[in-house]
Batch of 2 targets.
Target 1
Amino acid sequence: MVHRCKGNYYIKVFGCQMSEHDSEILAGQLEELGYQPTEDQSKADIIMLVTCCVRETAENKVWGLLGRLRSLKQENPNLIIGVCGCLPQQKDMGNNIKRRFPHVDLIIGTHNIHELPRYITQLQETRETVLEVWSDSDAVVEEVPIKRAHGIKAWVTIMHGCNNFCTYCIVPYVRGREKSRRPENIVKEVKQLAEAGYKEVTLLGQNVNSYGKYLEPPVDFADLLVMLNDIPGLERIRFTSSHPRDFSDKLINVIAKYDKVCEHIHLPIQAGSSRILQKMNRGYTREQYLDLVKKIREKIPNCSITTDIMVGFPGETDEDFADTLDIVEKVKFDGAFTFVYNKRRGTPAAEMEEQVPEEIKTKRIEELISLQNKISIQKNRELEGKVEEVLVEGSSKKNSSRLGGRTRTNKLVIFNGSNELIGKIIPIKITAGLLTHLDGEFCG
Ligand code: SAM
Ligand code: SF4
């Protein structure tokens, strides 16, 4: 049911695709209530911050924005300010936010964002700050309204939480234990998306490779891909992230065989030294990672592989870091998200001795980025002269007079063309391989 316009909402997202998708769930609920989106904070009646606490920088950005919003609230006392997502989920953080930022009206955790309408009603009735952070929930909530940011590609959560407890990572503490959605609910959602004209879905989970572990009857991630591959109208299936420890041969065979499953694997390595990987509790060695990459490339020769890598984990020596550079050289990742290790309260690594000094971390990250940039350009140049299938997503963000789209291997391509091409899969000849994208020409 759509109500009369009640006002404007503004959502600011910090963090990963999970947070982006959470913001689509908030937007869906607010629009059902009758609110309209605005790009202008000062015109908003509701401002929601979807927060992240994986690294301190993301957390500090939230504190900065909350401070600035104080004056907006003074000008408009009816403005509702909400903080949700991972940040309030940390120990004592909800009360901390309430104390430090009394102008915040709603403080909601990761497990109960689907309860937003109820909290808004409660706030309007009581005029008291609503602080509702559930510690975890066994329920997998279905049928929540979602307002998708894009009309061609959509995120679909297939599982929540994480059971891996990598020693540096706060996610298992703020997103709770791993819970998979039932496959029939995922298939239903993707069918609805395909019927609505969506061409591509990206399946989201902290470790998609362990999808279905606790479901009855048993089902795994490879089975789910096979089910989704059958959906008429859907053209492309992507997924992220894959944990190297749980990557089965069956999954490699399914990616190789099923036409809609794209040849791109985001395979976070985190470090190149087996000693550090063990301290991180990653569950694989550098040799096992290299063997997995070899197997993937044998079965799926044109597969692109991207990764997450961290420098400066406690105890990382010059030799350990040299192993990281060495594995980056050996694998030749198509791209990498690089991170400086950051202490997260409550995680085992935060208590480890031998924390690496900041100046060493800075030197290492610069060296790593410079090596990876060289490799990314080299990989992109290898595509010059080739024709790639590109799903046209819309005007390019880099140059609005040109179009942008992605190859099956998830490389951004920018080219000239008319707007009628948007939503179509077209052949593009690659004319230049650059650091961040490919330049191309439509050759249809
Ligand atoms: N579940 C995914 C996986 O296992 O690869 C990653 C999720 S995490 C939100 C994204 C990335 O943030 C991680 O792959 C890791 O490289 C980085 N990260 C997590 N905790 C970190 C920390 N304490 N300091 C720096 N980077 C961190
Ligand atoms: Fe964090 Fe590891 Fe889980 Fe990824 S797999 S979310 S890095 S604990």
Target 2
Amino acid sequence: MEIIREVALLRRRVEEEKQCGRSVGLVPTMGALHAGHVSLIDRARKENDIVVVSVFVNPTQFNNPEDLRTYPRTEEADCEKMINAGVDIAFIPSVEEVYPEPDTREFNLGPVAEVMEGAMRPGHFNGVAQIVSKLFAMVQPHRAYFGEKDFQQIAVIRRMVQLEDFDLEIIDCPIMRENDGLAMSSRNVRLTPSQRAIAPAIHKTLVASLDFAKSHTIAETKQYVIDEINAQPEMEVEYYEIVDSLTMQPIANWSDSDCPVGCITVYCGQVRLIDNIKYTK
Ligand code: AMP
């Protein structure tokens, strides 16, 4: 595996591979890699000749400085995981390399970016669009891989791709979970043992809500999920919205969407956990 830290070298190496007719898959990450990330890498490995993984804790998408400061950084372990997963190029740049000048671009991301994460974390999705558009421009991959754990993020990235006319395929990959159902996340290491023990209640409640939803309205189902999770010690729901999976807009009736998805954010102590579930009809 090549570790590349400079943009110019990255561009050159990827260009050389493409000149030889090889297809390129990109997996953007913020490091602290876990099996969720590895599932994206595995998929990219199957579908492309060359797999590029970026490891970059992007400051412009953090609206909370404390979250940025304490975000886990584990480069050595990440490299080992990337080597084992068969990554060809690990792009691990410094902040100065990616942003030699402050990025002042404001993307017109529209309604998909205004609700849920967009409402709770002002500037977050603009920061995501900044870094992902830079990575797409640097690598110009044939395919880029994203996890459905960050369900709204995928909709935002699709919108950015449309705005910027990037010629690539966005591939969404299913959520990887721990054995007890907790969605894998780099932030899980910050949970105390008692919080870690209670955190699977999020997924359990979402699964239980699939059955509940068969005989209840959207409003009742939302309330059920919020009450169940808030009843757990140390847990507080920030939002639970049931939205259309394409527009990300909240729906009022089950019949308003062909594929409703419930998106949740829960504070477990200080740790913000995110998850979602699809309500198939
Ligand atoms: P992050 O490093 O948290 O920015 O995540 C990098 C990519 O991995 C994003 O596309 C995430 O959606 C994806 N990802 C993170 N956790 C999981 C998971 N548990 N299952 C699948 N994909 C994930």
